[in-house]
Amino acid sequence: MLKLERGAVMKRLIVLICLSLILIIDNKIVFAQDLLNLRCKSAVLIDAESGKVLYEKNKDERLPIASITKLMTFYTFVEELGEEYINGYLTYNIDNSKYKKDEPILDIKAGERIKTGDLITAMLVFSANNAPDMLVNEYERVKKENFIEKMNQTAKKLGLNDTYYVNPSGLTKENKYNISTAYDQARLSYYILKKHKDILRYTSKKYFDYNGKRYYSTNKLLGNYHGLDGLKTGYTKEAGYCLISTLDASKYSGNSKPLRFITVVLGCSSDAERFVETRKLLDYAKNNFENYVLDSEKTFEVKNTDYVGDLIKLKPSGDVYILKNKHESPELSIKLNDKLNRKIRKNDVIGRLFIKTSIGTKEVDLISVNDYTRKSLFFRLFQHIKNLFKNMGWFGWIELKKI
Predict the structure, then answer these.
(1) Among residues 290, 306, 332, which one ends one of the domains?
(2) What residue stretches are annotated with the Peptidase S11 D-alanyl-D-alanine carboxypeptidase A N-terminal domain (predicted)?
């Protein structure tokens, strides 16, 4: 009876220890997510190369997005009319009296000619509300179709299923406003940087001059955070203070490989707060992630007893890099091609190298460092038989001179 009681106690003790370990692990996960203590409704940090989420807070919560809407206005306009259209001119045909006195607008009069690129600059740097309206007018004049419908079609095409637009500027009109999530907006920024990276020549400007007047960027991190070069601010009463930023972190990485992060914060309570919270995300990215770089001169040896020498030396066909957590070591694995030639020549592609981190996996061709010749069929057959017998323990080993 006593043995049974002791056994029961031991079982309960083991269960308690396991539960404690689970709670400790869970607390670490929760702590990792709460580490930044972000003061915003929603936020996300992603890798601009892979789109992988590195940190998030309520990333899928649907919220008003205010003027960060203008990123989709830019993307839709350029996608549909082409980047070459930016270098053209158009005639401004809007009556500015329709805008409120405190609304940011570019000082231009109806009938004046303006370069399309200047309108885009005004929209992305100063957040001028008459700029997207003029771009919409031009698009609908050329394409003969509704621009807002095209914005929503584009969102669906990109898989931004929690995003819906009612206007190109992000303003609240008649209690209607544009809706999205931090994650959808991060993904949109990811696509923009993949296809239209020239946007950075606009969003990196601290100010621009037009018709003798200077317009300052609404992004106060420009020039105050090394490597930051975009992307867009937003504010309405409904949305609060929002900010999408992107950081060229290769300036911190110690190697020449691209490294860029995208951050989104939605629903901050003040102008200053959105920049403070964005700094937290960017600092977290810099302090916790880096590129693992494998250069093309790194060699590997793979045992293959079918070839003279029993070892094949390989190296990557080119440099390869992948994002990783600074506290992890990547897993490397090699897979030789299923069929190899009788004679392997130097620089022949004979396999693949797989590099796995917590962020993702990359692969690269492996090429032969030297020439290799396959052993004769008789020798290979005898070698396989010898190994079979050796594994079965029938005799120690058989020595055969190479043929």
Answers:
(1) 290
(2) 37-267
Count of domains observed in the chain: 2
Closest CA to 297 of 367, 249, 377: 367
Residues classed as catalytic: 67, 70, 127
User: Residue 190 forms beta bridges with which residues?
Assistant: none
Query: Are 304 and 255 in a shared domain?
Result: no
| Residue with token string 């396989």 | 384
pLDDT tens readout for residues 282-310: 999 999 999 999 999 999 999 988 899 99
Identify the CATH number of the domain in which residue 381 sits: 2.60.410.10
Q: How far is CA 309 from the centre of its chain?
A: 44
**Structural domain boundaries, residue 101:** 39-290
- Are 44 and 60 contained in the same domain? yes
CB atoms within 10 A of CB 220: 17
The verdict on 179 and 61 lying in the same domain is yes
Residues facing residue 104 across a β-bridge: none
Residues 6+ apart with CB under 8 A from 21: none
pLDDT digit string (tens) for 130-189?
A: 999 999 999 999 999 999 999 999 999 999 999 999 999 999 999 999 999 999 999 999
pLDDT value, residue 254: 76
DSSP β-bridge partners for residue 139: none
Is 109 annotated in a binding site? The answer is: no
Q: Are residues 138 and 219 in the same domain?
A: yes
Nearest CA to 345 out of 306, 314, 382, 391 is that of 314
